[in-house]
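Hi P.,

Sorry for the delay on this. The queue was packed all week, but I finally got your sequence through. Input first:
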Amino acid sequence: MKKDYENPDIVDEDLEDVSSKEIGIKDKKAWIEGRNGEEERIGVTEPYPKKELGAIENEIDKRVIDVMKNVQDPELGVDIWSLGLIYDITENKNLNVVMTFTSPMCPYGPQIVSEIKHGLKSEGYKEDEININVVFNPLWEPSDELKDALGMGG
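Then the structure:
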């Protein structure tokens, strides 16, 4: 099944200026062909179309939004909703959350997902009705307002 977003671990880059020895690759051509084969296998296409938070709020039950506003990123001490980590939420037979982390290597990712599920279960959702899909394309980028609030400059 093809996905509508790209795996962040696969990047288009020009390896011509990097020696194979530096990155531990014996055969660059074989590596690139293998990487391209992996992209095809997992169905890499375009970045996930992130929805505006206001649009999500208009479509989804306030209790679900409140759960997102009560789950904090432990590193930044800011809730995942305000950070903009939620890319989309839809509800049909299941509750489907598409989100990201501040970094693909986020050590708190599993904890954040667990807290979301716990919060949603406390609102009456069953474990098998909750789908949380973590994507990294597009990568998270803090808003200028958030950068100012975190002291990162705008």
